[in-house]
Design brief:
Layout: E1 3-4, E2 16-20, H1 25-39, E3 44-50, E4 65-69, H2 79-103, E5 107-110, H3 117-125, E6 130-134, H4 141-146, E7 152-155, E8 168-170, H5 177-180, E9 195-200, H6 207-218, H7 222-225, E10 228-233, H8 236-248, E11 252-256, H9 262-267, E12 271-274, H10 278-287, E13 291-293, H11 303-313, E14 318-319, H12 327-338, H13 341-354, H14 359-371
Parallel strand pairs: 2-3, 2-5, 3-4, 5-6, 6-7, 7-8, 9-10, 9-12, 10-11, 12-13, 13-14
Antiparallel strand pairs: 1-4
Helix pairs in contact: 1-14, 2-3, 6-8, 6-12, 10-13
Protein backbone atom coordinates (compact mmCIF):
# COMPACT_ATOMS: atom_id res chain seq x y z
CA UNK A 1 0.00 0.00 0.00
CA UNK A 2 1.38 3.40 -1.03
CA UNK A 3 0.27 6.57 0.61
CA UNK A 4 1.10 10.23 0.06
CA UNK A 5 0.15 13.52 1.59
CA UNK A 6 -2.95 15.22 0.14
CA UNK A 7 -2.85 18.53 -1.71
CA UNK A 8 -0.46 17.67 -4.51
CA UNK A 9 1.96 20.50 -5.33
CA UNK A 10 4.02 20.57 -8.51
CA UNK A 11 7.55 21.22 -7.29
CA UNK A 12 10.31 22.85 -9.31
CA UNK A 13 13.32 20.57 -9.80
CA UNK A 14 15.68 23.48 -9.09
CA UNK A 15 14.85 23.59 -5.39
CA UNK A 16 13.54 20.12 -4.70
CA UNK A 17 15.23 17.44 -2.63
CA UNK A 18 14.18 13.86 -1.96
CA UNK A 19 15.16 12.38 1.40
CA UNK A 20 14.71 8.66 2.01
CA UNK A 21 15.15 6.89 5.34
CA UNK A 22 14.35 3.57 6.98
CA UNK A 23 11.41 3.66 9.38
CA UNK A 24 13.21 3.48 12.74
CA UNK A 25 14.39 6.29 14.98
CA UNK A 26 18.03 5.70 14.05
CA UNK A 27 17.24 6.70 10.47
CA UNK A 28 14.26 9.02 10.88
CA UNK A 29 15.66 11.30 13.62
CA UNK A 30 18.68 12.52 11.63
CA UNK A 31 16.49 12.74 8.52
CA UNK A 32 14.07 14.95 10.46
CA UNK A 33 16.86 17.28 11.47
CA UNK A 34 18.04 17.67 7.87
CA UNK A 35 14.47 18.18 6.65
CA UNK A 36 14.13 21.16 9.00
CA UNK A 37 17.43 22.63 7.79
CA UNK A 38 16.35 22.56 4.14
CA UNK A 39 12.77 23.51 4.93
CA UNK A 40 13.94 26.66 6.72
CA UNK A 41 15.89 27.59 3.58
CA UNK A 42 12.87 27.41 1.32
CA UNK A 43 13.50 24.05 -0.31
CA UNK A 44 10.69 21.76 -1.44
CA UNK A 45 11.10 18.43 0.31
CA UNK A 46 9.79 14.94 -0.42
CA UNK A 47 10.36 12.25 2.23
CA UNK A 48 10.13 8.56 1.35
CA UNK A 49 10.10 5.90 4.08
CA UNK A 50 8.32 2.66 4.91
CA UNK A 51 5.13 2.27 6.92
CA UNK A 52 7.00 2.17 10.24
CA UNK A 53 8.28 5.68 9.63
CA UNK A 54 4.80 7.20 9.86
CA UNK A 55 4.89 7.42 13.66
CA UNK A 56 7.92 9.72 13.53
CA UNK A 57 6.32 12.27 11.20
CA UNK A 58 4.48 14.21 13.92
CA UNK A 59 7.54 16.39 14.46
CA UNK A 60 8.36 16.94 10.76
CA UNK A 61 7.35 20.19 9.03
CA UNK A 62 3.73 20.08 7.84
CA UNK A 63 4.44 21.60 4.42
CA UNK A 64 6.50 18.68 3.07
CA UNK A 65 5.28 15.76 0.99
CA UNK A 66 5.59 12.28 2.47
CA UNK A 67 5.34 8.94 0.72
CA UNK A 68 5.39 5.59 2.48
CA UNK A 69 5.72 2.21 0.84
CA UNK A 70 5.65 -1.45 1.80
CA UNK A 71 9.23 -2.70 1.73
CA UNK A 72 10.60 -5.55 3.82
CA UNK A 73 14.12 -6.94 4.04
CA UNK A 74 14.91 -9.93 1.86
CA UNK A 75 14.20 -13.15 3.76
CA UNK A 76 16.32 -16.00 2.39
CA UNK A 77 15.17 -18.51 5.02
CA UNK A 78 11.55 -18.56 3.89
CA UNK A 79 11.02 -19.01 0.12
CA UNK A 80 7.51 -17.55 0.25
CA UNK A 81 8.64 -14.45 2.16
CA UNK A 82 11.61 -14.14 -0.20
CA UNK A 83 9.33 -14.05 -3.22
CA UNK A 84 7.05 -11.55 -1.49
CA UNK A 85 9.95 -9.32 -0.42
CA UNK A 86 11.34 -9.31 -3.99
CA UNK A 87 7.89 -8.38 -5.29
CA UNK A 88 7.69 -5.44 -2.86
CA UNK A 89 11.23 -4.39 -3.77
CA UNK A 90 10.42 -4.30 -7.49
CA UNK A 91 7.17 -2.49 -6.75
CA UNK A 92 9.12 0.04 -4.68
CA UNK A 93 11.62 0.60 -7.49
CA UNK A 94 8.83 1.34 -9.97
CA UNK A 95 7.13 3.73 -7.56
CA UNK A 96 10.39 5.47 -6.67
CA UNK A 97 11.13 5.86 -10.38
CA UNK A 98 7.73 7.46 -10.85
CA UNK A 99 8.41 9.97 -8.05
CA UNK A 100 11.89 10.81 -9.34
CA UNK A 101 10.64 11.45 -12.88
CA UNK A 102 7.68 13.42 -11.53
CA UNK A 103 9.61 15.76 -9.23
CA UNK A 104 13.08 15.69 -10.88
CA UNK A 105 14.91 16.55 -7.63
CA UNK A 106 18.21 18.38 -7.58
CA UNK A 107 19.65 15.67 -5.35
CA UNK A 108 18.61 12.55 -3.41
CA UNK A 109 19.73 11.91 0.17
CA UNK A 110 19.67 8.44 1.74
CA UNK A 111 19.84 7.82 5.49
CA UNK A 112 20.23 4.06 5.37
CA UNK A 113 17.92 1.13 6.06
CA UNK A 114 16.51 -1.37 3.57
CA UNK A 115 13.50 0.86 2.65
CA UNK A 116 15.93 3.31 1.02
CA UNK A 117 17.11 0.76 -1.56
CA UNK A 118 14.36 1.35 -4.18
CA UNK A 119 14.83 5.13 -4.18
CA UNK A 120 18.64 5.04 -4.27
CA UNK A 121 18.63 2.36 -6.97
CA UNK A 122 16.20 4.33 -9.13
CA UNK A 123 18.06 7.60 -8.56
CA UNK A 124 21.33 6.10 -9.77
CA UNK A 125 19.60 4.42 -12.73
CA UNK A 126 18.23 7.75 -13.93
CA UNK A 127 21.42 9.68 -13.23
CA UNK A 128 20.39 11.82 -10.26
CA UNK A 129 23.01 13.01 -7.79
CA UNK A 130 22.98 10.95 -4.58
CA UNK A 131 24.57 11.59 -1.18
CA UNK A 132 24.28 9.01 1.60
CA UNK A 133 24.51 9.54 5.33
CA UNK A 134 25.89 6.75 7.52
CA UNK A 135 25.19 7.22 11.21
CA UNK A 136 27.14 4.21 12.48
CA UNK A 137 30.85 3.46 12.69
CA UNK A 138 30.56 1.03 9.76
CA UNK A 139 28.50 1.28 6.58
CA UNK A 140 25.14 -0.49 6.71
CA UNK A 141 24.07 -3.00 4.06
CA UNK A 142 22.34 -0.58 1.69
CA UNK A 143 24.94 2.16 2.06
CA UNK A 144 27.72 -0.38 1.54
CA UNK A 145 26.00 -1.70 -1.59
CA UNK A 146 25.85 1.78 -3.13
CA UNK A 147 29.07 3.26 -1.67
CA UNK A 148 31.03 3.11 -4.95
CA UNK A 149 28.10 4.35 -7.01
CA UNK A 150 27.02 7.52 -5.19
CA UNK A 151 28.53 11.00 -5.19
CA UNK A 152 29.58 10.94 -1.55
CA UNK A 153 28.94 9.55 1.93
CA UNK A 154 28.59 11.73 5.04
CA UNK A 155 29.67 10.00 8.25
CA UNK A 156 28.23 10.34 11.73
CA UNK A 157 31.32 8.91 13.47
CA UNK A 158 34.98 9.00 12.63
CA UNK A 159 36.60 6.77 11.71
CA UNK A 160 33.91 4.93 9.75
CA UNK A 161 34.67 1.49 8.32
CA UNK A 162 33.95 1.42 4.59
CA UNK A 163 35.27 -0.27 1.45
CA UNK A 164 38.44 1.27 0.07
CA UNK A 165 37.79 4.15 -2.29
CA UNK A 166 34.54 5.26 -0.64
CA UNK A 167 34.18 9.05 -0.68
CA UNK A 168 33.78 9.72 3.04
CA UNK A 169 33.32 13.04 4.80
CA UNK A 170 32.75 13.57 8.53
CA UNK A 171 29.70 15.66 9.44
CA UNK A 172 28.48 14.04 12.65
CA UNK A 173 24.97 12.75 13.26
CA UNK A 174 22.18 15.34 13.05
CA UNK A 175 20.00 15.40 16.16
CA UNK A 176 16.40 16.55 16.55
CA UNK A 177 15.68 20.27 16.69
CA UNK A 178 13.88 19.85 20.02
CA UNK A 179 17.26 18.84 21.46
CA UNK A 180 19.12 21.71 19.83
CA UNK A 181 16.64 24.25 21.20
CA UNK A 182 17.10 22.90 24.72
CA UNK A 183 19.33 24.90 27.04
CA UNK A 184 21.89 22.43 28.35
CA UNK A 185 22.20 22.32 32.10
CA UNK A 186 25.75 21.96 33.44
CA UNK A 187 26.33 18.45 34.73
CA UNK A 188 26.08 18.46 38.51
CA UNK A 189 26.68 15.36 40.55
CA UNK A 190 25.72 15.19 44.20
CA UNK A 191 26.67 12.40 46.55
CA UNK A 192 23.59 13.06 48.67
CA UNK A 193 20.85 14.38 46.34
CA UNK A 194 18.46 12.65 43.93
CA UNK A 195 19.93 10.39 41.25
CA UNK A 196 18.14 10.32 37.91
CA UNK A 197 18.89 7.17 35.92
CA UNK A 198 17.59 6.95 32.36
CA UNK A 199 17.20 3.59 30.63
CA UNK A 200 16.63 3.80 26.89
CA UNK A 201 16.55 0.81 24.59
CA UNK A 202 16.34 2.70 21.29
CA UNK A 203 13.09 3.67 19.57
CA UNK A 204 11.92 0.04 19.73
CA UNK A 205 12.76 -0.70 23.35
CA UNK A 206 14.92 -3.55 24.67
CA UNK A 207 13.58 -6.63 26.44
CA UNK A 208 17.03 -7.38 27.90
CA UNK A 209 16.92 -4.10 29.81
CA UNK A 210 13.48 -4.93 31.18
CA UNK A 211 14.81 -8.23 32.48
CA UNK A 212 18.16 -7.23 33.90
CA UNK A 213 18.06 -3.61 35.07
CA UNK A 214 15.47 -3.85 37.89
CA UNK A 215 17.45 -6.75 39.36
CA UNK A 216 20.72 -4.81 39.05
CA UNK A 217 19.20 -1.72 40.70
CA UNK A 218 17.80 -3.88 43.53
CA UNK A 219 21.35 -4.93 44.47
CA UNK A 220 22.55 -1.37 45.05
CA UNK A 221 23.08 -0.22 48.65
CA UNK A 222 19.87 1.03 50.28
CA UNK A 223 21.48 4.45 50.86
CA UNK A 224 21.78 4.88 47.07
CA UNK A 225 18.64 3.04 46.03
CA UNK A 226 16.36 5.34 48.03
CA UNK A 227 17.74 8.35 46.12
CA UNK A 228 17.08 6.95 42.64
CA UNK A 229 14.49 8.04 40.10
CA UNK A 230 14.29 5.66 37.13
CA UNK A 231 13.04 6.76 33.72
CA UNK A 232 12.74 3.57 31.68
CA UNK A 233 11.69 3.44 28.04
CA UNK A 234 10.61 -0.12 27.27
CA UNK A 235 8.50 -2.18 24.94
CA UNK A 236 4.78 -1.69 25.49
CA UNK A 237 4.41 -5.34 26.45
CA UNK A 238 7.00 -4.93 29.24
CA UNK A 239 5.78 -1.68 30.82
CA UNK A 240 3.25 -3.04 33.30
CA UNK A 241 5.56 -5.67 34.78
CA UNK A 242 8.42 -3.19 34.92
CA UNK A 243 6.39 -0.75 36.99
CA UNK A 244 5.64 -3.55 39.45
CA UNK A 245 9.31 -4.60 39.57
CA UNK A 246 10.46 -1.10 40.48
CA UNK A 247 7.68 -0.75 43.03
CA UNK A 248 8.72 -4.00 44.71
CA UNK A 249 12.36 -2.89 45.08
CA UNK A 250 11.29 0.52 46.39
CA UNK A 251 12.52 2.73 43.55
CA UNK A 252 10.62 5.68 42.08
CA UNK A 253 10.00 5.01 38.41
CA UNK A 254 8.45 6.43 35.26
CA UNK A 255 8.04 3.65 32.72
CA UNK A 256 6.78 4.37 29.20
CA UNK A 257 7.02 2.87 25.74
CA UNK A 258 8.02 6.29 24.41
CA UNK A 259 9.03 9.56 26.08
CA UNK A 260 8.01 12.56 24.00
CA UNK A 261 10.02 14.81 26.34
CA UNK A 262 13.17 12.69 26.30
CA UNK A 263 15.35 15.79 25.85
CA UNK A 264 14.15 17.09 29.24
CA UNK A 265 14.85 13.71 30.83
CA UNK A 266 18.35 13.50 29.33
CA UNK A 267 19.09 17.02 30.52
CA UNK A 268 18.34 16.09 34.15
CA UNK A 269 20.05 12.69 34.04
CA UNK A 270 22.97 11.63 36.22
CA UNK A 271 23.44 8.33 34.40
CA UNK A 272 22.08 6.95 31.12
CA UNK A 273 22.00 3.25 30.26
CA UNK A 274 21.36 2.65 26.57
CA UNK A 275 21.82 0.54 23.51
CA UNK A 276 24.51 1.77 21.14
CA UNK A 277 22.51 2.98 18.16
CA UNK A 278 23.97 6.01 16.42
CA UNK A 279 21.09 8.42 17.08
CA UNK A 280 20.77 7.49 20.75
CA UNK A 281 24.51 7.97 21.29
CA UNK A 282 24.60 11.30 19.44
CA UNK A 283 21.68 12.70 21.42
CA UNK A 284 23.19 11.64 24.74
CA UNK A 285 26.57 13.13 23.77
CA UNK A 286 24.84 16.45 23.13
CA UNK A 287 23.91 16.67 26.81
CA UNK A 288 27.21 15.26 28.04
CA UNK A 289 25.98 12.73 30.58
CA UNK A 290 27.70 9.62 32.04
CA UNK A 291 26.79 6.69 29.86
CA UNK A 292 26.74 2.89 30.04
CA UNK A 293 26.33 1.33 26.60
CA UNK A 294 25.13 -2.25 26.11
CA UNK A 295 25.34 -2.94 22.35
CA UNK A 296 22.68 -5.24 20.95
CA UNK A 297 24.07 -8.65 20.10
CA UNK A 298 24.21 -9.58 16.40
CA UNK A 299 23.46 -6.10 15.06
CA UNK A 300 24.18 -5.73 11.33
CA UNK A 301 27.98 -5.85 10.84
CA UNK A 302 28.20 -5.55 14.66
CA UNK A 303 27.72 -1.80 14.22
CA UNK A 304 26.49 -1.16 17.76
CA UNK A 305 29.59 -2.71 19.29
CA UNK A 306 31.77 -0.62 16.98
CA UNK A 307 29.85 2.54 17.92
CA UNK A 308 30.28 1.80 21.62
CA UNK A 309 33.95 1.01 21.19
CA UNK A 310 34.61 4.49 19.77
CA UNK A 311 33.20 6.07 22.93
CA UNK A 312 34.95 3.61 25.21
CA UNK A 313 38.33 4.46 23.63
CA UNK A 314 37.70 8.15 24.33
CA UNK A 315 36.67 7.29 27.93
CA UNK A 316 33.26 8.82 27.20
CA UNK A 317 31.26 5.73 28.20
CA UNK A 318 31.43 2.30 29.78
CA UNK A 319 30.79 -0.45 27.23
CA UNK A 320 29.37 -3.80 28.36
CA UNK A 321 28.96 -6.58 25.83
CA UNK A 322 25.55 -8.25 26.04
CA UNK A 323 27.02 -11.69 26.77
CA UNK A 324 28.94 -10.20 29.73
CA UNK A 325 26.01 -8.19 31.08
CA UNK A 326 25.08 -10.08 34.24
CA UNK A 327 23.07 -8.50 37.04
CA UNK A 328 26.11 -8.34 39.31
CA UNK A 329 28.42 -6.85 36.68
CA UNK A 330 25.92 -4.15 35.72
CA UNK A 331 25.37 -3.32 39.41
CA UNK A 332 29.13 -2.95 39.81
CA UNK A 333 29.40 -0.54 36.86
CA UNK A 334 26.42 1.54 37.98
CA UNK A 335 27.89 1.79 41.46
CA UNK A 336 31.31 2.84 40.11
CA UNK A 337 29.71 5.93 38.57
CA UNK A 338 27.22 6.79 41.31
CA UNK A 339 29.78 6.82 44.15
CA UNK A 340 32.66 8.41 42.25
CA UNK A 341 32.09 12.09 41.54
CA UNK A 342 35.44 12.46 39.76
CA UNK A 343 34.67 9.57 37.38
CA UNK A 344 31.15 10.82 36.66
CA UNK A 345 32.43 14.30 35.80
CA UNK A 346 35.17 12.83 33.60
CA UNK A 347 32.70 10.69 31.64
CA UNK A 348 30.41 13.69 31.26
CA UNK A 349 33.19 15.97 30.03
CA UNK A 350 34.56 13.42 27.56
CA UNK A 351 31.08 12.71 26.19
CA UNK A 352 30.42 16.40 25.69
CA UNK A 353 33.70 16.79 23.78
CA UNK A 354 32.54 14.18 21.23
CA UNK A 355 29.22 15.91 20.49
CA UNK A 356 28.65 17.59 17.11
CA UNK A 357 25.65 19.88 17.74
CA UNK A 358 26.07 21.58 14.35
CA UNK A 359 25.91 18.25 12.45
CA UNK A 360 22.71 19.08 10.56
CA UNK A 361 24.25 22.35 9.33
CA UNK A 362 27.48 20.61 8.33
CA UNK A 363 25.50 17.91 6.50
CA UNK A 364 23.42 20.49 4.63
CA UNK A 365 26.56 22.41 3.60
CA UNK A 366 28.19 19.17 2.45
CA UNK A 367 25.15 18.29 0.35
CA UNK A 368 25.09 21.74 -1.26
CA UNK A 369 28.81 21.47 -2.08
CA UNK A 370 28.12 18.19 -3.87
CA UNK A 371 25.16 19.73 -5.63
CA UNK A 372 27.21 22.71 -6.80
CA UNK A 373 30.17 20.60 -7.89
CA UNK A 374 32.60 22.17 -5.41
CA UNK A 375 35.92 20.48 -4.71
CA UNK A 376 35.70 18.39 -1.52
CA UNK A 377 38.60 16.79 0.30
CA UNK A 378 37.33 13.29 1.02
CA UNK A 379 38.66 10.80 3.55
CA UNK A 380 38.97 7.12 2.76
Amino acid sequence: MLKNNPNYIKYSSKNTIIITAGGTGGHMYPAESLVWEFNNSGWNIIVISDLRGSKFLKTFPTNIKVYTQDVISLNFRNPFLLIYSIYLLIKGIFFSSYLLLLYKPSIVIGFGGYPTFPTIFSAKFFGFKVVLHEGNAILGKVNKFFCSKVNAIACGFWPTIAPKGSKLYFTGNPIRKTFLSKKIKPFKFSLTGRLNIVVIGGSQGATLFSNIIPESISKLPISIKKRINIFHQARSSDCQNLKKDYEIIGVNSDVKSFFYNIEDIFSDAHLIIARAGASTISEVLFFGRPLILIPIRNSVFDHQKLNARLLSKKEAAFCINENECTNDYLTKKILEILVNNKLAVKLSSNAKSMAVPEASIKLKEFILKNLNGEVIEFKN
